[in-house]
Amino acid sequence: MRIQGRGIAITIYLLALFLPIYWLLNMSFKTNGEIMSGLNFWPHHVTLRNYAHIFTDPAWYLGFVHSLTYVALNTVISVSLALPAAYAFSRYRFIGDKHLFFWLLSNLMAPTAVYAMPFFNLYYSIGLFDTVWAVALAHCLFNVPLAVWILEGFISGVPREIDETAALDGYSFPRFFIKIFLPLIANGIGVAAFFCFMFSWVEQLLATTLTTVHAKPIVAVMTRVYSAEGMDWGLLAAAGVLTMVPGAIVIWFVRNHIAKGFALGRV
Amino acid sequence: MSLVLDHVGLTVGQEVVINDVSLTFERGTMNVLLGPTLSGKTTLMRLMAGLDKLTAGTIHVHGKNVAGIPVRRRSVAMVYQQFVNYPSLTVYENIASPLRVAGLPKAEIEDRVTEASRVLRLDPFLDRLPAQLSGGQQQRTAIARALVKRAELVLLDEPLANLDYKLREELREELPRLFAESGTILVYATTEPAEALLLGGTTATLWQGRVTQIGATPLVYRKPANIDAARVFSDPPLNEMGVTKSASQVTLSDGRALTSDALLAGLPDGAYRIGFRVEDARIGPPTGATDAFPGVVSVTEISGSESFVHLDVGFATWVSLVLGVHDWQPGAAAEIRIDPRRVFVFDAAGLLLRAPEAMSVSPLAVMA
After folding, report:
1. Same structural domain, B248 and B289
2. Is A162 on the interface with B (CB under 8 A)?
3. Which of A250, B50, B287, B340 is the most buried (most CB within 10 A)?
4. Facing residues of B319 across strands?
5. Is the ipTM reported for this complex over the cut 0.85?
6. Is the pTM of this model over 0.90?
7. Do B49 and A168 touch (CB under 8 A)?
8. Domain A51-264 belongs to what topology?
9. Closest Cα to residue B262, out of B286, B245, B285, B278?
10. Alpha carbon of B316 to those of A46, A171, B35, B308: distances in Å?
């Protein structure tokens, strides 16, 4: 009896959770005419025209390519910059270390809009404007501190004696770091990379401000669906579905790491 | 090969952690650092290994100052109290690690690892990860890694403290033998006097960052140079009392006068501290004898073949060791008698004036 009640509760919860996603999926397989014609719980005239449009029109699929490129670049840059920083914060005491650590975090507190203008002007003057690098570097603003914060927790979870034992065994620092240390914080790297990916993927303001044509992200492309006939609902829904796919794939791969990250209390 | 610590000191902030330590270690010797927790054993070992930098003094190896030599270029191996292994490497790779880094040929590595794992009985576990081993096996892995390196200096920091009793006894016998063959300087830190005595060799007692005495282990045990060394080398703690002698009259700190001056016979007037070990505190039912110290039992610890009876004698709580299981109930009246020939007498500054004669029979046999 109790089990049944629990089952019903979970079912309702999942229904509520998946309803918007289902509706988006539902719309993406309908024609605009069907979307506008009334309430249909599933597509009566299934069409792949919306998806076909995205995969054949360069304006659309390049949006995905640009987004994925700067997100990947940003994730790699953020994690590789954060690793040595987090190691230093965890292992060494230096003047102002705690203040510096907190100051890093304070970067996450300012609204991104504050940084949009200076970045725009700076990148424009050095010729980085409208490149994937512009967005990838700009996103480091909040992703590097985040990655440092997450990794520091994981690194502090590794006993210092392991570093010392490696030194006693004769390891040089780079060799120790790559061969011994990185495998020990693989979970942390996974978690940090996931969050960098996620925040860079969903960030819209900097991405649209710092690009026009050559590095236009998918979120910017999606705002251009108005035409003479009005809004192209089906196309927008298909783009929305495709936008969720990379996130879902990444979550699938790091789900176990994330659980450990939560257990460590740093996420 | 010799290792010389010359007036070594370490000050962290305002705190003096290691205070003017001078020690010499010769190759092929067993050296025990004996001291209570926080006495500086681990810190001293870290300084010897080069993991921490000294703030005073010098360390010479082969007559050469090693201050500027990084840890990884020194010939040092260390085993920590907590089991430290590389979690992501198998037991085999853990043991082989220093040899791999040194770039030894494969066959040589194989030989040394096989030999070490055979001696430390790790051969069935070579393919496992450290997390899949018991604590004892993990610590044996760490010891094996120190062994295969054949370092000139091997530092064992309470390596057996976290192991179970049986394993501890076994390894305690084996360890010195394992390292003896390689002619290494073995330094072994422990909090347990009994462990120091079993290991033998030379003992340096540490107390609050200072070396209070250096000497052959049994000698340090029998004739601690001062009260600090005696305290360090007594477990359970040394029973103590402060006394004053004036005109053949011995007075306790609480004003009580003793009937005879036997405890301080032949010593001039003055203030003294008397110490005696638990095995020399003979407890019995109260007789009212004038030379006994009456008191009330506060706790009795029974450890199988022995019982430790804690007796509150008013100015102190003394511990008496009795063989067998004795049921002294808390609150029971009892008295402790001290044989004047079995006490340590220290002067007011804590220096040893008189130690008990060495006995040909075990102190336990005398009591029985």
Report:
1. yes
2. yes
3. B50
4. B310
5. no
6. no
7. yes
8. MetI-like fold (1.10.3720)
9. B245
10. 93, 53, 23, 16
